[in-house]
Write a structure and sequence with these properties.
- 2 copies of one chain form a homodimer.
- By secondary structure, chain A is α/β, with parallel strands linked by helices.
- Chain A has a single domain, classed as Rossmann fold, CATH 3.40.50.2020.
- Helices cover about 25% and strands about 35% of the residues of chain A.
- In chain A, the strands form 2 sheets. A 7-stranded mixed sheet of chain A has the order 5-6-4-3-7-8-9, sandwiched between helices.
- In chain A, strand 1 and strand 2 form a beta hairpin.
- The longest helix of chain A has 13 residues.
- The radius of gyration of chain A is 15 Å and the shape is globular.
Chain lengths: ~180, ~180
């Protein structure tokens, strides 16, 4: 059962011309979810991982499961205004306007090895902001792992230029 | 290591008079996160669970890990406008105004046993809306499981009145 076969494509969502890759059909499938998390874990089982960071919100589902399986802590990287304690913030560009991600100032101990997990990498803008936050908080990003990659949008090159290893379980051509 | 001891209390957040129970300190602690997920799983390891449903966003972190550990699928119950396919919606009251949760119409197969997971139960309004959605989608809620309960706010009684079993790992007095 290839993981890619359980991902649903929704044409023209959220706007005309976009092929939205919907992983909910993968997550709700027992075999599909099990396999997805196990493959994400397998990629890093020999690395030193101190914590997993997941990007709100779909990265929480996968990151929580990966952190538990690796027996490490989980750090949420959240949208602005959602974390209750002192935070660091990074803004990033969207097609129209900007958005902001935050991390707790005490989420990471200086020098910890952090694995970043999210569902999908497109342009890499969100992941770039998350990497900057993790580094500012004192962490070393030892890998960025995604279920889906959209290679035409250049996210991999963007994160590699920051010195990060990028791994994805499957890829889709087109936007 | 009691789970409760790893939860941080932030006074006057998000507004004066509220004692906010911050589970990020528990989640980022390897031992704390492991123990939390294992205890949530242990409560249901003898039950027939077909899928875990998690409520956005903190319920995704815990629900994803619990679903993976039980080897079942995960269903996200999301804020309005976040799910890309056809949805069912339920609104619920907040202190000021209302909010809406959604579930995909095809997330659950008729008759499936669903375990609902979230981080905290206060008045139970959010969980009530999630239970209604799961039932409308064809699922049977076999349990509602939380890390933290605020017993003075009556959430347990509200969900029990709907015929749901409520379990929580720890409780805090006061709001």
């Amino acid at each position: 059962m290839p993981i890619k076969s359980r991902i649903r494509t929704i044409p023209d969502y959220p706007e005309k011309g976009i092929m939205f890759r919907d992983i909910t059909t993968l997550l709700q499938d027992a075999q599909g979810f099990r396999k997805t998390v196990d493959e994400l874990v397998q990629l890093h089982v020999r690395s030193k991982v101190d914590k997993v960071a997941g990007i709100e919100a779909r990265g929480f589902i996968l990151g929580g499961a990966v952190a538990h399986q690796l027996s490490v802590g989980f750090v949420p990287v959240r949208k602005k205004g959602k974390l209750p304690y002192d935070t660091l913030a990074e803004s990033y560009d969207l097609e129209y306007g900007t958005d902001t991600l935050e991390i707790h100032t005490d989420a990471i101990v200086e020098g910890e090895s952090i694995l970043l997990v999210d569902d999908l990498i497109a342009t890499g803008g969100t992941a770039e902001a998350a990497i900057k936050l993790i580094r500012r908080a004192g962490g070393e990003v030892i890998g960025c792992t995604f279920v889906v990659e959209l290679p035409e949008l250049g996210g991999r090159e963007r994160l590699e230029a920051m010195g990060c290893e990028v791994l994805a379980l499957c890829s889709f051509e087109g936007l």
